[in-house]
């Protein structure tokens, strides 16, 4: 089992001090990740429960999703590739599915990981990641999607469709796809990982904060 390390930033130290004093810490920003290889959806099984973490592969550090802000800078803007589900805007903000592209743009290389789940635990050696909800600036949004290099959608936040909300992944795998945002703003993306272990349905649900800069 990996040792989980937590980075305590300057803001984290200040927030911890205020929390000790019994004061509201909501004004303090979470740890911000803005570049490098980061498994946004990283499932783990402790023998009794599923958990979701954000795994910073660059520093081999795990975070609780609530403790992290994922930053998508203006440098992530690229021409709209013309896929119908990406809207009619001329540009999108893209976190690409190859590390070389992400490094060249100086943006996150986001992963979806089950590599820390071992075979023989979950039925069919499979778990499912489901997009439960997505908001931008507090309102439901259709501006978020995940798709692979062939243009096949994995996820689409469009509330008018029930499609492209759920996708199975084999355990012990590591997956990458394009994460696209059609407008700037603060996104809250809620994902659930679910699988069947010993005949019992197990799941974990977390909400991720993504700030897309204009």
SSE map:
Blueprint: H1 10-20, E1 31-33, E2 36-45, E3 50-56, E4 61-63, E5 68-72, E6 77-79, E7 91-95, H2 99-105, E8 108-113, E9 126-136, E10 139-140, E11 144-147, E12 153-156, E13 166-170, E14 174-176, E15 178-181, E16 185-197, E17 200-212
Parallel strand pairs: 1-5, 2-8, 5-17
Antiparallel strand pairs: 2-3, 3-4, 6-7, 7-15, 8-14, 9-10, 9-13, 9-16, 11-12, 11-15, 16-17
Structural class, from secondary structure content?
A: mainly beta
N- and C-termini, Cα separation: 40 Å
Radius of gyration: 17 Å
What fraction, in percent, of the residue positions are helical? under 10%
Low-confidence stretches: 1-29
Please write the string of helix (H) and strand (E) elements: HEEEEEEEHEEEEEEEEEE
**3D shape:** globular
Structure description:
The chain has 214 residues and is mainly β. It is built from two helices and 17 strands. The protein has helices at residues 10-20, 99-105, and strands at 31-33, 36-45, 50-56, 61-63, 68-72, 77-79, 91-95, 108-113, 126-136, 139-140, 144-147, 153-156, 166-170, 174-176, 178-181, 185-197, 200-212. The strands form three sheets. Strands 1, 5, 9, 10, 13, 16 and 17 form a seven-stranded mixed β-sheet that branches. It has a five-stranded mixed β-sheet with strand order 4-3-2-8-14. A hairpin with a 4-residue loop joins strand 2 (36-45) and strand 3. The longest helix has 11 residues, at 10-20. It starts with 9 loop residues before the first helix and ends with a strand. The model is unreliable at 1-29 (pLDDT under 50).
């Amino acid at each position: 089992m990996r040792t989980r390390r937590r980075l305590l930033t300057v803001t984290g130290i200040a927030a911890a001090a205020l929390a000790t004093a019994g004061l509201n810490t909501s004004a303090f920003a979470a740890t911000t990740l803005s570049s490098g290889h980061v498994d946004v959806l990283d499932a783990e099984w402790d023998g009794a429960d599923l958990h979701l973490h954000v795994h910073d592969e660059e520093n081999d550090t795990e975070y609780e999703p609530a403790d992290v802000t994922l930053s998508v800078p203006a440098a992530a803007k690229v021409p709209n590739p013309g896929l119908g589900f990406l809207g009619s805007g001329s540009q999108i903000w893209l976190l690409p599915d190859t590390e070389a592209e992400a490094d060249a743009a100086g943006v996150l290389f986001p992963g979806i990981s089950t590599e820390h789940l071992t075979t023989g635990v979950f039925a069919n050696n499979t778990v499912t990641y489901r997009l439960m909800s997505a908001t931008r600036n507090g309102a439901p949004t259709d501006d978020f999607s995940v798709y692979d290099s062939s243009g096949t959608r994995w996820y689409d936040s469009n509330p008018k469709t029930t499609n492209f909300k759920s996708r199975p992944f084999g355990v012990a795998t590591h997956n990458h796809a394009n994460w696209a945002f059609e407008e700037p703003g603060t996104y809250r993306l809620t994902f659930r990982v679910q699988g069947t272990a010993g005949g019992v349905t197990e799941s974990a649900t977390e909400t991720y904060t993504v700030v897309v800069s204009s």
